[in-house]
Amino acid sequence: MPDYQSKNGQIVAVAANGTEVPIQIKGVNWFGMETTLAVPFGLWENADNGTTAYEIAAFLARNNFNAVRLPVSVENILNNSPPQKGVINLSSNRAINGTDFISTLQTLVKSLAYRNIGVLISMHRLTNKKSGATWFDEDIGVTQDDFLDAVDTVSSNLCGQDYWNVMGLDLKNEPEKATWGTGDDDDFVVGCEKIAKVMHGNCPQWLGFVEGVVSTHTVTIGGEELEYYDWWGGGLQKAGNTQPKFTIENKVVWAPHYYTTAVAPQRYFYGDGTTSDFSTYVELSDEDLLARVEGTMNDMFGYLADDKNYALLLGEFAGLYTKDAHPKKTTKRTTDLTIQVLMEKEYAGGFMWSLNPESEYQYNPADTEGAFTEGMLLDDWLSPNSEFLDAFTPMDAMPNLRKFPCFPIEDR
């Protein structure tokens, strides 16, 4: 299997003979394994809707997507929970072994490997219902040892030539109440080092994808001082000076999140005259919105792309798109401009949220709360959401966007 490395601002697959292949990511999130279903949504193929793992892989390959981020839960890993009965059509998904959680994950990875699609496993939730605001929470029954046991299980069972397309772990999704560099129990820098040590003990070839923490900051854009709150997973302001030290070099990938009004309205997406509760909002011009998106991205994490050291990509971004109810389409434009910035700043790519048509958002437009759904696929799980799909076409121009390389096994 490749040795996945993070250097020169890129993810690099390194063969046993030293051949290096840089890879940029045009990826999707496909959720479900972090829930009580214990399997990605959509594999229930029936008369009304649903699909197969091979069809998902073929769809992604046809549209130049080369990677999938799969959220999982500590609870499902430790219990080795089989998928909920009836949520996989086993006759059409014969490639999936749903005996238990690990066999489901293993065979899903193999199904994606058939199309040379890479996999990032996200340590997403502590339980099937609760994400956890850091990488452990004894109040909901998940200790540090529990989390590390789950990492040990995944990294010992998904490493090797059969699973060559797994690039690593997103070490903890959205640690929004963790600290950074404090030395306390909730210090995510220390947490990442502990998690990566276990992971690399089993699988030294894997990368550790590191998200940010959350706080309030100020940034000056266009001569105006703006206050902003980090997107969950997005706050990497301190990472320039304080970074996790893994036992193996070139293994850190920065993987922050950046979203739109659909997740939570942000004052910096709007102009003068916008009220604090967004009951009145003033949409910006394309030029001014770009300045706000670029300025906040750069302050949160984008500056890390400048030194061309570790790879920087977006672990989650986008969201509601074609259904944007803003008159001037602020939510939709924010996604378009996010892609523009990651391209211009030469990020290592990103994983859009999400493939699932059940993806739910809370605001549309800024002054209206509700439950608004949209994904890369329509409700039948077969038809593409064409306008949303096309939004990611600019990423096809990334110079190192390619299928994940399956290197030949060399005789020893």
UniProtKB/TrEMBL annotation:
This protein's record includes keyword Ribosomal protein: no
Alphabetized Pfam families for the sequence: Cellulase
InterPro entries documented for this protein: GH, Glyco_hydro_5
Residues covered by the Glycoside hydrolase family domain: 26-358
GO MF terms, alphabetically ordered: hydrolase activity, hydrolyzing O-glycosyl compounds
Transmembrane segments: none
Entry keywords, A to Z: Carbohydrate metabolism, Cellulose degradation, Glycosidase, Hydrolase, Polysaccharide degradation
Similarity section: Belongs to the glycosyl hydrolase 5 (cellulase A) family.
Name of the protein in question: Glycoside hydrolase family 5 domain-containing protein
Organism of derivation: Phytophthora nicotianae P10297
